[in-house]
Amino acid sequence: MKKEKKINYKIDSNVLKNYVEAINSIKEPMSQIKEQLNRFSKTMQELEKSLNESLKPLQEQLKSINTMSNAIKKLSINYPNEQSKIFTDTIKQIVNTNNGMLSTRMIEPLNISRQYLSIMEKNKDIEKISRGIYLSPNVFEDSYFSFQQKYKKAIFSHMNALYFYGMTEEFPYNYTVTVPQSYHVGKVNEKCNVFYVSDDIYEIGVTEVETPSGNKVRAYDKERCICDIIRSKGRMDPEQVKKSIKQYIQSKDKNVAKLSDYAKRMGISKKVMEMVGIYYE
Predict the structure, then answer these.
(1) 122 and 183: one domain?
(2) Which domain holds residue 251?
(3) In angstroms, what CA-CA distances link 141 with 67, 103, 134, 177, 210?
């Protein structure tokens, strides 16, 4: 009896990597992204012309999503009776590429129904850990990574971000995040200390850092954190604020020019320079 040939639904690793990076970097509502993707034509030249001005900065991400979508369509054409296997295998590959984590946002632009997530959960291929977030059974949950997968506009800040840099003794039992003023509090986990800021300073100092588990998350850089803990010192432990500022001043990679620029743009130049000056030798 002939053995059934195993069909390979593998998608190119670069296509997967670019797709996952694109989805993780997009903060706009997925409904807006899907609407724009529906207007895409088959050629890159027409694709670029079809982008409206508000989405121009997302051009590369949208291309990556479109390439991924086309890869799945090609598999569906080659194996017209294997759609279920193609979709579940694609989800598995996305999970593996995304360090064992999946958010429902990651399958939305690919027009993969959420019913496949239910099927995979039933088969114990993935585990639902919170609303819209799934985890591979082969990995431990990175709570920082999964939190930001769910709340895309939340940026780790203040002492929480300084913890990533080893600049505070204070372990962040609760997340401390900064969000735009327009972001509703009901959308953020109740375990959070939430700071609301205006849009003009929200993006100042945003960078990517590694969590203790080695995943990349968005957080503010050291200079922005120093500005934030001085700006919000009424909500902070005063001793921890002093220790963190002193440690920053003593660090070899400090950038006082950048700190001064951030403080000026945030309207707290005098306050920051005075407090930093106390520890500057």
Answers:
(1) no
(2) 151-279
(3) 29, 13, 10, 19, 15
Ordered alpha helix ranges (H), the chain: 13-25, 30-37, 44-50, 59-78, 83-97, 115-122, 143-150, 158-164, 199-202, 222-231, 238-250, 256-265, 269-279
Q: Is the pLDDT of residue 234 over 60?
A: yes
Q: Is residue 7 assigned to a domain?
A: no
Domain count, the chain: 2
Asked which of 108, 141, 174 is the last residue of a domain, the reply is 141
Per-residue pLDDT tens over the stretch 25-43 = 887 788 878 777 776 544 4
Average pLDDT, the chain: 86
Assigned token pair, 45:
């030249």
**pLDDT score at 4:** 52
3 within a domain of the structure (yes/no)? no
Assess if residue 224 is contained within a domain.
yes
In this structure, is residue 1 part of a structural domain? no
Are the CB atoms for 138 and 147 separated by under 8 Å? no
Q: Where among 85, 115, 141 does a domain terminate?
A: 141
Cα–Cα dist 180/1, whole Å: 63
Q: Is 245:236 a contact under the CB 8 Å cutoff?
A: no
Same domain, 72 and 122: yes
Q: Does the structure show a pLDDT above 80 at 212? A: yes
Residue 258 backbone dihedrals phi, psi, to 5 degrees? -65, -40
Q: What is the pTM of this model?
A: 0.76
Q: Band of the pLDDT at 132, cuts 50, 70, 90? A: confident
